[in-house]
Task: inverse folding
């Protein structure tokens, strides 16, 4: 099993006539943040449902080396999940929500205060969940997922619909968890989030994996028109293709001290996605 | 065991903050109390109203509450988070049923305080309430398993619950309805509450309902798996 937390091998799934997953093969290593990036309807949640034993699938899906069809209590004890709709009890207080899950996981109750502090919800113990903002609910969902110190956390679009400040707080928490050695399986339709947060990603489009690997490597690999972004001392902007023809232009600028900045411009994940599928990532 | 206790505790807290379900639990005892008080000191009125409303309580409330709890947990995704925390579906269903039955019995006790019961009759009354609560909870769970959300569940639970609750009462005024009512568990429950006599037909009707509902629940559960 070495250090692979998740292994998908040619995983397929259909709902009625519709083939939702068309042969997904990927793995997630211990201690990394793995990102599943794709527009809505790509099949991200379906993959999480398969990995958490909620859906059957074709091919082979394994978590901690255990087949996903046979997921039982031990697997659930080692995983935490942040669902896209939170799944919190609206009429109960934050602390009561967490207490319930602490009891189910047989985790000592002092963890409730600890995780609330960890996600920055101190003082919210007695607040009813229905009075919380979306960002606070999302943080409470995360608090619940880490209550029992799981080795692997699934996060289904944890920052979608949040303001940038709250989103970056969640990112900070994710980094903190990763430093402690927790593996995170993240789904998102936000390419910046995937680029900044994830060690490796899979780009998903309509149930097919169109790219897989380190975000920067994916961008470089699909960099068809290698271009150089140049700003001269006068503030003039030049976009030159990376070809021998332009060597003299650049050399000239350098010699005359006219070169203020020069950057290679790789496509970002959104451009890669667009060029691979002909579709925009964020609709 | 610990899990069941945790779910029971959660459900108590949740239902206490859920005004509609509190209403359903308290409506029949309250109405019965109001009627009896309004009628004044006429002794036989409590003998009439208490079994009537108690039978309604024992059939309607558990159906409405259990289908509501289950469908709401499905709709809000809380059931999914419980299952992903390692709670087994069967354990969940048992815990919820236990809550509904306990809540029905507890609120049903109010009827015992309103009527003049002999000790023997009180025991049989409680037994009838328990039988009604168990069978109605099974119906409620079946409805909850079939429904994707609360609206859909209420759409089935309210008419089913009302028919079962009203049959025994209407049977008092019409002999045809009475004969139909005899074949339902709520009709037999109402009988046992009224006069405290146990008949063979009663046991047969209750037993048949119990077996049929258990089979139905198992089939539905195997088919839908609480998804
Ligand atoms: N239970 C279901 N029944 C039928 N179709 C479904 C079901 N769940 C998901 N789908 C379909 O599968 C596709 C992928 O859905 P999903 O995995 O939720 O996408 P994402 O999470 O990437 O937005 C969608 O087209 C959706 O309509
Ligand atoms: Mg989704």
Result:
């Amino acid at each position: 099993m070495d250090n692979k937390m998740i292994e998908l091998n040619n995983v397929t799934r259909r709902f009625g006539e519709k083939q939702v997953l068309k042969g997904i093969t990927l793995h997630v290593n211990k201690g990394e943040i793995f990102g599943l990036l794709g527009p809505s309807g790509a099949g991200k949640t379906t993959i999480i449902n398969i990995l958490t034993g909620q859906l059957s699938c074709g091919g082979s899906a394994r978590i901690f080396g255990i087949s996903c069809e046979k997921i039982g209590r031990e697997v659930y004890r080692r995983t935490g999940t942040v669902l896209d709709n939170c799944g919190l009890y609206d009429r109960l207080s934050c602390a009561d929500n967490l207490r319930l899950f602490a009891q189910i996981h047989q985790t000592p109750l002092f963890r409730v205060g600890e995780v609330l502090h960890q996600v920055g919800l101190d003082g919210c113990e007695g607040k009813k969940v229905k009075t919380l903002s979306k960002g606070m609910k999302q943080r409470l969902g995360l608090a619940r997922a880490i209550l029992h110190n799981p080795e692997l956390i699934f996060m289904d679009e944890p920052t979608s619909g949040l303001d940038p400040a709250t989103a970056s707080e969640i990112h900070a928490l994710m980094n903190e968890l990763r430093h402690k050695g927790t593996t995170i399986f993240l789904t998102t339709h936000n390419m910046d989030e995937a680029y900044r947060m994830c060690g490796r990603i899979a780009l998903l489009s309509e149930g097919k994996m169109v790219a897989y690997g380190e975000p920067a490597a994916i961008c470089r690999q699909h960099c068809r028109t290698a271009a150089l972004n140049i700003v001269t001392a006068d503030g003039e902007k030049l976009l030159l293709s990376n070809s021998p023809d332009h060597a003299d232009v650049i050399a000239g600028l350098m010699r005359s001290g006219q070169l203020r900045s020069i950057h290679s411009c790789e496509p970002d994940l959104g451009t890669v996605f667009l060029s691979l599928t002909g579709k925009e990532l964020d609709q | 065991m610990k899990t069941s206790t945790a779910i029971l505790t959660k459900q108590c807290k949740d239902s206490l903050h859920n005004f509609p379900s509190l209403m359903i639990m308290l409506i029949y005892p309250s109405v019965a109390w109001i009627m009896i008080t309004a009628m004044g000191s006429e002794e036989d009125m409590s003998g009439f109203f208490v079994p009537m409303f108690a039978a309604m309580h024992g059939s309607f409330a558990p159906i409405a509450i259990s289908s509501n709890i289950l469908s709401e947990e499905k709709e809000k995704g809380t059931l999914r988070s419980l299952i992903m925390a390692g709670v087994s579906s069967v354990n969940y269903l048992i815990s919820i049923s236990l809550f509904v039955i306990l809540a029905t019995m507890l609120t049903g006790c109010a009827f015992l305080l309103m009527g003049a019961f002999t000790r023997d009759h009180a025991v049989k009354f409680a037994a009838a309430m328990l039988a009604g609560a168990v069978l109605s909870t099974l119906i409620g769970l079946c409805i909850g398993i079939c429904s994707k959300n609360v609206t859909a569940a209420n759409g089935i639970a309210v008419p089913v619950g009302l028919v079962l609750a009203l049959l025994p009462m209407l049977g008092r005024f019409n002999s045809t309805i009475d004969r139909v009512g005899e074949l339902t568990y709520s009709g037999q429950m109402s009988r046992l509450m009224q006069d405290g006599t146990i008949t063979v037909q009663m046991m047969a009707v209750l037993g048949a309902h119990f077996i049929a509902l258990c089979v139905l629940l198992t089939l539905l559960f195997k088919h839908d798996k609480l998804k």
